[in-house]
Amino acid sequence: MSADRYRAAVAVYGVLRQDDHVLLLRRAGSGYHDGELSLPAGHIEGGEDVVTALVRELAEELTIAVVPDDCRLSLVAHRAAESTDDHEYLDLFFDVSRWQGEPCIGEPRKCSELIWADRHDLPIDIIPYVARAVVAMHSGQLLVLDGWAS
Questions:
Q1: Do 94 and 54 meet the contact criterion of CB atoms below 8 Å apart?
Q2: Which CATH number covers residue 57?
Q3: What range defines the domain where residue 45 resides?
Q4: DSSP per residue, 71-96
Q5: Rounded distance, CA 117 to CA 67, Å?
Q6: From the CA atom positions of the chain, what is the Rg in Å?
Q7: CA-CA-CA-CA torsion sign (26, 63, 71, 95)
Q8: d(CA 50, CA 9)
Q9: For 31-48, what is each residue's pLDDT tens digit?
Q10: 130, 112, 147, 136: which is closest to 13 by C-alpha?
Q11: Residue 59 domain flag
């Protein structure tokens, strides 16, 4: 494979719902959108499929157990780089229909709070691309292009 071939970063996001609420976490200590709300998420690791990555991230971040069959891909987002030293991202958003355990903060150095937010009235301090993804999922969109000049 050519060393100069283009590559994008891939991240997975878990959307846990209770009625009309979605679980959000407040980022902390990572240097990326600290203080803002996001969905539980993370990067895939080499040799790991995207569903395995999501199940791992949910266990690490929320201390819950999720069966892969309970994760359904709902939205793909292709994001432009946020800065010159960032990557373009392919974000995969999964509805997580069931889990075992009560979600709680599993990585206190990376998360300061968990909240159940009304998906029809998202908090103003949610990361903007995450808010757009939640709204798009609710409206049945399958693809979001974010940060690209039109």
A1: yes
A2: 3.90.79.10
A3: 9-146
A4: EEEEEEEEE--SSTTS--EEEEEEEE
A5: 24
A6: 15
A7: negative
A8: 12
A9: 777 899 999 999 999 899
A10: 130
A11: yes
